[in-house]
């Protein structure tokens, strides 16, 4: 079994929108057969948490530098652009898994 992709989903409070988005991410990845561990956090904790993550996803704006991919996932909550966000999540997870196999 492949090692899960470690994902941080962050919002302003770490409670409301990140919880909804985290559940959507689990659903999207589960349907695509991608193993993931999804963690929730706040925008303020992104910098310290990102070093242990493969991907960071936010429901709000984040402009800091990260060494891993950053995906804006507000569309999972609003429904606007949800299909594109879902595709980006799947593609990014698959890229990470493919690099591990190299």
Automatic annotation (TrEMBL):
Residues 7-63 form the Phosphotransferase system EIIB component type 2/3 domain. Pfam families: PTS_IIB. One of its GO terms (biological process) is phosphoenolpyruvate-dependent sugar phosphotransferase system. The keyword Transmembrane does not apply. Keywords: Sugar transport, Transferase, Transport. GO terms for molecular function: protein-N(PI)-phosphohistidine-sugar phosphotransferase activity. This is PTS sugar transporter subunit IIB. It comes from Faecalicoccus pleomorphus.
